[in-house]
């Protein structure tokens, strides 16, 4: 029994370690837009955040709990889009590790064109974060401006996964 527990502990450690990213893809708006369209068979949750945004940091543990809860659902995917500066890429990687982020994290290096791409995602988005967008079959189905509670996140996902 002791050996079984040790093996299980090693397996869990490896699974958690493997789930964390060791590199962050740096992308531009057009690449993110293509990525959203490629996930046509899924409900895609796209959260825009930053390591320096208090409400963003506060809501991320809820997002990770919900992401873990839907991990076995092949029709669900979560992407966390960091709006940190490219110069802060190492801080983002450290943040991923320290906060145990298991969803895919992308670094959107396109701050100079914010006024161009923000309204393409959502006309009512004023540029503040956090913001969460929900896409089903590549089409936006919900926009949440501001911090999102775990309950609201789960409710929105369940309503749109059907």
UniProtKB/TrEMBL annotation:
**Keywords noted in UniProt:** Isomerase, Redox-active center
Can the keyword Isomerase be found in this entry's annotation? yes
KW Isomerase (keyword) present:
yes
GO molecular function list? isomerase activity
Q: Where is the Thioredoxin domain?
A: 2-162
The record's section on InterPro entries has: AhpC/TSA (IPR000866), Thioredoxin-like_sf (IPR036249), Thioredoxin_CS (IPR017937), Thioredoxin_domain (IPR013766), Thioredoxin_ResA/DsbE_sf (IPR050553)
Per the record, the domain of life is Bacteria
The protein, known as = Thiol-disulfide isomerase/thioredoxin
């Amino acid at each position: 029994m002791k050996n079984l527990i040790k093996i299980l502990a090693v397996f869990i450690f490896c699974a958690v370690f493997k789930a964390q990213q060791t590199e962050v893809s740096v992308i531009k708006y057009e690449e993110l837009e293509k990525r959203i369209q490629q996930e046509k068979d899924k409900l895609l949750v796209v959260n825009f955040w930053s390591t320096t945004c208090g409400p963003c940091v506060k809501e991320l543990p809820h997002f990770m709990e919900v992401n873990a809860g839907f991990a076995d659902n092949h029709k669900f995917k979560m992407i966390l889009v960091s709006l940190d500066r490219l110069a802060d890429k190492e801080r983002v990687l450290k943040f991923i590790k320290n906060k145990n982020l298991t969803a895919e994290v992308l670094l959107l290096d396109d701050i100079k064109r914010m006024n161009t791409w923000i309204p393409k995602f959502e006309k009512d988005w004023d540029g503040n974060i956090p913001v969460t967008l929900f896409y089903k079959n590549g089409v936006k189905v919900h926009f949440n401006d501001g911090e999102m509670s775990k309950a609201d996140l789960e409710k929105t996902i369940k309503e749109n996964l059907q």
